[in-house]
């Protein structure tokens, strides 16, 4: 078994989560002045089926945090392999994330990304500060499925495609 140069402490923690593949999601919202904001998230998780709820985590130092802190509604998007270009845009320069025609206004004016495998809109029901981060819980109210697609993953600091079936 190969070990990291420093297999203890923060370095081990960071390397362990780099090795943990995660699906790619994008969270979008409107800033208090009505501008669209968004970011990629690999921390998206289902919280409950009844009522339908999801969670995601983010740093409170993130450029999108003021919008998430100051809004009641968000849109959650699940991305597939065909959405790689959109994933790169949404992970890039925050001032340019909504340049182009890869999104449109949706319910409540929220930015909805086009062509994603699924999107959901919901109301934030909890924001819990944890150190310099926040856990956000969202009660889902509506959404839609896009075309089926292979999953888009994030692993070892890179977007990846799913491997072979086992």
Set out the fold topology:
Layout: H1 9-18, E1 22-23, E2 25-30, E3 36-41, E4 45-49, E5 52-59, H2 65-69, E6 73-78, H3 84-91, E7 103-105, E8 111-113, E9 118-130, E10 133-145, E11 152-155, E12 158-161
Antiparallel strand pairs: 1-11, 2-3, 2-6, 4-5, 5-10, 6-9, 7-8, 9-10, 11-12
Q: Could you explain the architecture of this structure?
A:
Helix content is 14%, strand content 44%. The chain contains 3 helices and 12 strands. The two termini are 22 Å apart.
Short characterization:
This protein has 166 residues and is mostly beta strands.
Binned, the helix content reads 10-25%
Taking all Cα atoms into account, the compactness measure Rg is 16 Å
Oligomer: single chain
Mean pLDDT: 92
Order of helices and strands: HEEEEEHEHEEEEEE
* Number of DSSP E strands: 12
Structural class: mainly beta
| Beta fraction | 35-45%
Terminal CA distance reads: 22 Å
Strand count, sense and barrel status of the largest sheet are: 7 strands, antiparallel
Q: Which runs of at least 5 residues are low in confidence (pLDDT < 50)?
A: none
Give a quick set of tags describing it.
single chain, 166 residues, mainly beta, seven-stranded antiparallel β-sheet, three-stranded antiparallel β-sheet, 14% helix, globular
């Amino acid at each position: 078994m190969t070990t990291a140069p420093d297999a203890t402490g923060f370095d081990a923690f960071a390397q362990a989560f780099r090795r943990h593949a995660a699906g790619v999601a994008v969270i979008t919202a409107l800033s208090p002045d009505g501008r669209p904001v968004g970011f990629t998230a690999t921390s998206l998780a289902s919280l409950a089926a009844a009522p339908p709820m999801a969670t995601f985590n983010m740093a409170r130092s993130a450029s999108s945090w003021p919008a998430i802190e100051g809004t009641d509604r968000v849109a959650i998007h699940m991305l597939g392999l065909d959405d790689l270009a959109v994933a790169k845009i949404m992970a890039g320069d925050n001032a340019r994330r909504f340049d182009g025609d890869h999104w449109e206004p949706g319910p409540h004016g929220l930015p909805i990304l086009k062509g994603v495998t699924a999107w959901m809109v919901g109301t934030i029901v909890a924001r819990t500060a944890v150190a310099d981060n926040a856990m956000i819980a969202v009660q889902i109210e509506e959404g839609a499925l896009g075309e089926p697609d292979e999953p888009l993953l994030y692993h070892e600091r890179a977007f990846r495609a799913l491997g072979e079936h086992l």
